[in-house]
Amino acid sequence: LSTFTLEYTVHFHTGIGCSLSVEYSHIYRIVQECLQNVHKHANATECVVQFLNNNNESFKVIIKDNGQGFDADIVKRGIGFANIKDRIEFMKGKLIIDSKPGEGTVISFVVETKKVQKR
Asked: In whole angstroms, what is the distance from residue 59 CA to residue 111 CA?
């Protein structure tokens, strides 16, 4: 039985969330699913989560780990990523998955706050 330590770092850009009260539960669940995947599958020692604000017009969440990576085309068919994709589509956002075996993973999504407010 092996043990390892996974260090998480979270960065919040000022003003994030001023227009996103309804979407907080979706954002929370997306980040939760990504962090669970890092913990269970990545064999990573570091994971950085960033919440970035772009002049209250959009926000971006970036989740980056130094783990073993994966073939994104295969994993995109799983139920966890299907749920992530559905939540991001609900918010009219864009999902980006950048991972290759042996190279870690970066998962990010962007949501324009104007589109969120119009719903």
From this structure: 6
pTM of the predicted protein model: 0.82
The whole-angstrom separation of Cα 6 and Cα 106 is 16
Q: Where are the beta strands (DSSP E) in the chain?
A: 7-12, 46-54, 58-65, 94-99, 105-112
Find out whether 29 and 82 touch, Cβ atoms under 8 Å. no
Q: What is the pLDDT of residues 12-57, one digit of tens each?
A: 666 655 555 567 789 889 999 999 999 999 999 999 999 888 877 8
CB count in 10 Å sphere of residue 77? 8
Report the pLDDT averaged over residues 90-108: 94
Least confident among 16-20, 60-64, 66-70 = 16-20
Amino acid at 22: V
Please count the other Cβ atoms lying within 10 Å of the Cβ belonging to residue 50: 16
- In angstroms, rounded to a whole number, what is the distance separating the alpha carbons of residues 68 and 38? 10
Distance CA 70, CA 85 (A): 17
